[in-house]
Amino acid sequence: MKKIIGFLLMATVFFAMSCTDPKTETKKEVIVVPATPTIIVKDPPAKATTITLDKNGVKVETKKVKVKIDN
Question: What is the pTM of this model?
């Protein structure tokens, strides 16, 4: 019986000691890089339909398209 009480007492002491550890603060270095907007401009294909939307409205331009249908 004394062994069981001694074991429970030691387990309680170790449990209490593990719960009272002081927390250590970690310092982290953060590097902030400003983002630059990237604009990709592609020319429309030579024979296509172009739709332009701006504050003045919608502008649709069509060019001749060769269509060939094979059976």
Answer: 0.30
